Every structure is written in C-alpha cells, then in structure tokens.
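Minutes, project check-in
Item: structure for the 152-residue chain
Input as provided by the requester:
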Amino acid sequence: MTLIQTIQTPVAAAISELIPRLRATAVLLSNTGAERADDYVEQVVRDLCAGDMSDTDDITIRSFRLLRHHVRADKRHVTTASHILDGGNKLRLALAQCSLGQREAILLQASGFKYRDIADICGVEIGTVRSRINRGKTTLNRLFEERPETLQ
C-alpha cells in the first residue's frame, strides 16, 4: 500500500494530481536532479499526510510551500551552475544564474500560480514576487540574447 492510498480519497486525488508539477518544479528549483527531486516530493507528500487534511482548497499552495521549505532547508542543494548541466539543458543552466528567490518565483509562475499565490507560498509581499520575476526574466533574457555560447 502506498502512502497516498492510506489517506482519504479526495485528498489523495488532489495530491496525486500535484505530484508531476511538484516533481518538475523540484528538479529545476533544487538543481540536484531527478532523484533528489523525488525525495523532496516524497517529503511533501509525507508532510501533507501527517497534517490536517480536512480541506483540499489550499492543498496546492500548501504543497508548494512545503516543497520550497524542504529545498531551502536541505543543506545538500547546490547553487552553482556547473552542477546544473544535464545533457546540455540550456534552461537549467540559465536558471542557475538567477538567485534562488528569482528561480522560485519564475518556476511557480510557469506552473500557473498567480502573484498572490506565489507570495503566499514564498512568504513575501506581492511586490517582491513581481520584482523577483522581473529581475529573473531580465537575467534569462540577457543570457539567451547576449551570451548564448555560455549556455552550451
């Protein structure tokens, strides 16, 4: 029996639907690859199962907040660009050039979250989210336009 099968059906369905999004975000956010990303997602699922699961309305926000917490708390995550290269993935290398806060905001926006949700997940004001996204996108644009050779 899997961990998700041990909890009530509506919550299990909500968590199951979130797992691919959580995993994709964890891979890019942590800079450590798919195996460690799976560990982060498992930690999130365990935390969700251990907590009060009476409502599913905020389960998405809660899940991404927990993911962010685990990535930031993990002292093993790497922030240098040399560890991001995975088969020459240019986006990963470019994202590694952004600060962790910028990377979080950009990835959460790319996952479909609104500014208010990103602010709730990250525990910052909406203005900070807008600033991080803008600065991160500026960095990415600069890297792709001015120095494409550094992303190969």
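Outcome recorded: The chain has seven helices and no strands.
No further action items on this chain.
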